[in-house]
Each structure stands twice: as C-alpha cells, then as structure tokens.
Specification:
The protein has eight helices and two strands, in the order ααααααααββ. It has 176 residues and is mainly α. Strands 1-2 form a two-stranded antiparallel ribbon.
Length: 176
C-alpha cells in the first residue's frame, strides 16, 4: 500500500472531508489533494502533524505501511505526558523569562516607591479657576514684591494665573 493510499485511509478513519482534514492538521488544502492523487509525497512535517492529531496511529504504518494502522497501546496525549515528565528546555526558558520580567517590574515599582518616599512631594490639589491655593499665596506675594522692586510703578505686571500641565493629560491652575 502506497503512502497516498494510507493518507486516504486516515482521512476515512477521521471522518473528515479533505478540506476539513487539511484545516484540522493545519496544512494547505491543495497539499492534501496532491498527496491523495499521488502527485506529491507527504513531507515529514505533514506526517508529524497527522501523528500529532491522531496519536493512536502507528508510526510504522503511516511511514512504512507495516504493522497495524492503530497501535495496541495508545500513547498518552501530549498534555498528559507533560504532567508526568520533566519540562523541556524551552518551557524552562519561558518560565525564567516570565519570572525575570516579574522581578524587574517589582524592583522598578519598589524603586519608584522609595523615590517617592525619600523626596517629599509638594501638596497637589487640582483646582478650578475660582479656587485659590494657600501655598501659592505666599509665592504670589513674594512675586508681587519682586515685581514692584524690578519694574517701574506705571508698568506694573502681575501674575494672573500659573498652569502646570502633566504628561498624563491632567493640569493644575493657580491664581495668586
């Protein structure tokens, strides 16, 4: 029995149409028809995808056509094998990367907290145009006295409003 005939038998065994089978094992639909017609032989990747989807099928039967189509002792699906065996290298690397990112995020957050605690932040209050903040009353009085000293009396400029714009889109407006 040729390999294209074995693929046809697997198709019949699965109960799927050729296009459904192609979608199920994640190959192009045209490759199924080319293999079944005998135009092309299946690649190792194709056979591996079939075996992954149908683990009960025998490797020897799929590749060589010897033995029974189904293995007598069905191997455990991949997810169950994973629980019983030690993890592979890529899983360990992935877990290490996730842990490293977690640790770096925690270090960064803790550093920011320490910086915030070590430098007293000015009293932040969001105000509307009609509110005055007591903190800036003294500053505005000082500014007024400096302005009086530096500028002649007839061209007196006074600060009308101070506005702070923050990167997050918020702002604070202060009026002396």
């Amino acid at each position: 029995m040729e390999i294209n005939e074995r693929i046809t038998k697997i198709l019949e065994y699965s109960g799927l149409s050729a296009s459904e089978f192609a979608d199920e094992i994640d190959v192009q639909r045209s490759s199924i028809s080319h293999i079944m017609s005998g135009r092309n032989k299946p690649s190792l990747e194709f056979v591996t995808k079939v075996k992954t989807k149908f683990p009960e099928l025998s490797w020897n039967w799929i590749i060589l056509g010897t033995g029974e189509m189904k293995e007598s002792s069905t191997p455990l699906p991949f997810s169950e094998k994973e629980e019983n065996s030690s993890p592979d290298l890529f899983t360990l690397i992935d877990e290490d990367y996730k842990n490293e990112v977690f640790v770096q995020d925690n270090i960064q957050n803790e550093t920011l907290r320490e910086l915030n605690n070590s430098f007293p932040s000015p009293r932040k209050e969001i105000s509307s145009d009609s509110q005055r903040l007591e903190i800036f009353n003294d500053i505005s009085k000082t500014q007024q006295s400096v302005n009086e000293e530096l500028k002649p009396k007839e061209t007196e400029n006074k600060i009308k409003r101070i506005v702070f714009f923050y990167e997050n889109g918020k702002f604070e407006a202060f009026e002396p």
